[in-house]
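2024-03-11 09:14:02 INFO worker-7 job=invfold-0412 stage=load source=structure_tokens
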């Protein structure tokens, strides 16, 4: 049996204000065609199905289209919730999708293993593998907070609870079918994972990353949350599949792929995902960037998106006008222009200022306090309050 592992689709994402619907439609069509041609029995989507907890209607429609098209070619689908996903949104169609061989796992199963252990069968009805289907484990679902706990105690308590849950399901799977491969899932950061700009930290303030040593010896571990395809440590069978296409400009260096796990051969292969939309980063002086733009070539269906970094402290407004003139009737769109951070100053005597993209919220607040000439003691107190509020906002966003 072949299992295709993918993750972090982020349906409904807007990329700097631009919809990714075109890429996601192309992705669904490519995936279904690949599954049909290569004898894939199950697709495992390891979290972050949607980009937000309130996905737009077209994103939900595309999710259901994926499920229906896979069902038509008799391919199963296992979906686990990620930190971006709303449990209630995924649960809305969970019962209905179960009738077409789609298993949706949104929360830990404490009372019974029925919702957490999935037995995969081939076309002849033979059971080929057991999946310990584990979604993103939210702290509030795993531990009961106690007054007066330190951050270290909270971290240790959460890590211990996650470890116990994984071990419990693994032991159940081993007891029920000791000779079958056991596949684990997860949506979290393992030590050694590389984060990108498009990813939010999870377990804010308590657990930044989990050590691979705390998990049981799964034959394959299908992970989500890290957008770069990579293995965990030196274990080729524990993998992040990565996102299907770049979710931010800083993900351009990694080639996007899906992982294929063969239960019979106990082997893992990577399949490269086609590029559905070109994203490019250009950097240099004003004259160099203008020349690079003039030399751009593009033949794909979708408009290419550009990020420009200029190495001079110039008037960006006039520069943007020059770029716009060069891109008239050409299949390119500039989504971001920024100065190289080493030449950025918050405020200059000649009136040049940094853009908001160059500054963090704390930078902006500090600049505001300076402009208002707030008394130092009051400014320190306000900064502390602002930092507290910013942390709370980060926690609410995960």
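2024-03-11 09:14:09 INFO worker-7 stage=emit residues=398
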């Amino acid at each position: 049996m072949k299992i295709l592992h993918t993750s972090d689709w982020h349906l409904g994402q807007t990329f700097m204000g631009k919809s990714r619907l075109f890429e996601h439609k192309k992705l669904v069509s490519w995936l279904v065609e690949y599954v049909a041609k290569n004898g894939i029995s199950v697709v495992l989507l390891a979290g972050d199905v949607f980009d937000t907890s309130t996905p737009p209607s077209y994103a939900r429609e595309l999710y259901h289209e994926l499920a229906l098209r896979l069902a038509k070619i008799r391919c199963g689908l296992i979906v686990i919730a990620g930190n971006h996903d709303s449990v209630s949104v995924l649960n809305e169609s969970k019962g209905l999708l179960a009738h077409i061989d789609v298993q949706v796992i949104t929360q830990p199963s404490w009372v019974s293993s029925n919702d957490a252990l999935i037995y995969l069968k081939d076309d002849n009805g033979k059971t080929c593998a057991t999946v310990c289907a584990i979604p993103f484990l939210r702290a509030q679902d795993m531990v009961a907070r106690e007054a007066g706990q330190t951050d270290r105690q909270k971290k240790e308590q959460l890590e211990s609870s996650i470890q116990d849950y994984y071990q419990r399901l693994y032991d159940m799977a081993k007891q029920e079918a000791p000779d079958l491969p056991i596949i684990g899932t997860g949506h979290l950061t393992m030590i050694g994972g590389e984060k990108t700009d498009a990813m939010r930290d999870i377990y804010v303030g308590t657990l930044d990353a989990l050590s691979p040593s705390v998990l049981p010896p799964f034959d394959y571990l299908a992970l989500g949350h890290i957008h770069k395809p990579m293995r965990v440590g030196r274990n080729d069978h524990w993998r992040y599949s990565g996102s299907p296409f770049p979710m931010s400009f800083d993900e351009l260096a990694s080639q996007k792929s899906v992982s294929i796990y063969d239960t019979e051969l106990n082997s893992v292969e990577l399949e490269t995902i086609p590029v559905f939309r070109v994203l490019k980063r250009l950097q240099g002086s004003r004259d160099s960037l203008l020349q690079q733009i003039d030399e751009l070539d593009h033949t794909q269906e979708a408009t290419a998106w550009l990020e420009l970094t200029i190495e001079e402290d110039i008037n960006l407004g006039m520069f943007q006008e020059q770029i716009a003139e060069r891109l008239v009737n050409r299949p390119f769109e500039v989504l971001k222009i920024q100065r190289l951070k080493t030449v950025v100053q918050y405020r200059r005597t000649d009136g040049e200022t940094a853009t908001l993209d160059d500054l963090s919220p704390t930078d902006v607040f500090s600049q505001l306090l300076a402009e208002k000439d707030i008394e130092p003691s009051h400014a320190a107190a306000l900064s502390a309050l602002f930092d507290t509020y910013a942390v709370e906002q980060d926690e609410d966003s995960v």
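2024-03-11 09:14:09 INFO worker-7 stage=report msg="The first strand starts at residue 2 and ends at 6."
2024-03-11 09:14:10 INFO worker-7 job finished
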